[in-house]
Amino acid sequence: MHTATRIEIVPTGAALGAEVRGVDLSFDLDAASFGRVEGAFNRHGVLFFRDQRITEAQQIAFARRFGEVEINVNTQACLPGRPEILLVTNIKRGGQYIGLADAGTTWHTDMSSYERPPRCSILYAKEVPHDAHGAPLGATIFASAAAAYDALDPSLRERLAGKRAVHSYIAKMMARQKAVGLTREITAEHREKLRPVSHPVFRTHPITGRKCLYVTEGECTAIDGLPEAEALPLIASLHQHLISPQFQYRHQWKVGDVLMWDNCLCQHLAIQDYGARPRLMHRVTVNGSVPF
Q: Which residue has the higher pLDDT, 171 or 80?
């Protein structure tokens, strides 16, 4: 075990997010050091570690400190021999994408159409595209679902307290196809495994108890007790509120970044502004609990 004696947590100054300094993730952190990292993660929702050099096994081992690792349903996009690692990339071999090129290209929270959505996702930057002037491309924007809940009108919070929304993977993929296009195939197996589920409109963080707005336009197809003509515009309005600029943190990637986000506390969007310039991320996802 490794003791990181100089851990420094540096908030981004935005509504969420912090940088962790003084930690080398190629070592197993001792219990006290990991406790500081986990506590910061629960507070800030997004954590990032710069200048890391880790192996696939080390990334998986770090993820397992937070819970059981999830194997993504898109198994064709996983790293050969390491199904725990999903390749998020536009790189092709033999004319075929080696991973998911459309991952994150619309606002979402990961895998919310699962009965147990993931606790967190951990992305490791292997290749980062740049423009002609050397500026990084392919930023990821995060929005605080907790800050968005706090800023809701109290009468709306009261009106929607206890209500549940339906989350549909297929609706999400169809909305993404319409908005930006898809590079993956939606198989019959996907449709069978990922049937619509309902979750609270206001989800409670399982560790901190913070209330979070948990709806996504396009993916959420209904709110119980409301007619569709009322529910869909309300979902759209709630989601536009959630992704307002005052709740956002924008991460500019560097090679060696390890960044993790809490899928209850935030939503995110990957900016696809780099064309054919290669971008490669290794993603490991950690299982979560049933939303309440």
A: 80
> For 211-248, what is each residue's pLDDT tens digit?
999 999 989 999 999 999 999 999 999 999 999 999 99
* Active-site entry in 108, 199, 210, 239: 108
For residue 268, indicate whether it is catalytic.
Answer: yes
DSSP string, the chain: -B--TT-EEEE-SSSS-EEEES--TTSPBPHHHHHHHHHHHHHHSEEEE-S----HHHHHHHHHTTSPEEPPS-GGGEETTEEEEEEEE--EETTEESSBSSTT-SSB-TTTTSSS--SEEEEEEEE--B-TTS-B---EEEEEHHHHHHTS-HHHHHHHTT-EEEE-HHHHHHHHHHHT---S---HHHHHH---EEEESEEEPTTT--EEE---BTTEEEETTS-HHHHHHHHHHHHHHHT-GGGEEEEPP-TT-EEEEETTTEEEEE----TTS--EEEEEEE------
283 annotated active-site: yes
Q: Is 150 in the active site?
A: no
The verdict on whether 110 is a catalytic residue reads yes
The pTM of the full predicted model, rounded to 2 decimals, is: 0.92
